[in-house]
Amino acid sequence: MRTIDTPVWLTAEQQQVWRTYLGATNRVRQHLDNELRQFDLDLGEYEILVRLSEAPYRSIRMSELADQVGQSRSRLTHTVTRLETKKLLARGSCPGDRRGVLATLTDEGYAFLEEVAPYHVASVREILVDPVCAEDFAALGRVMQSVLDADLPTEA
Amino acid sequence: MRTIDTPVWLTAEQQQVWRTYLGATNRVRQHLDNELRQFDLDLGEYEILVRLSEAPYRSIRMSELADQVGQSRSRLTHTVTRLETKKLLARGSCPGDRRGVLATLTDEGYAFLEEVAPYHVASVREILVDPVCAEDFAALGRVMQSVLDADLPTEA
DNA sequence: CCAAATAAGTTGAACTCTCAACTGTTGCTG
DNA sequence: CAGCAACAGTTGAGAGTTCAACTTATTTGG
Question: Which residue in chain B is spatially nearest to A71 when comparing CA positions?
Answer without folding.
Answer: B26
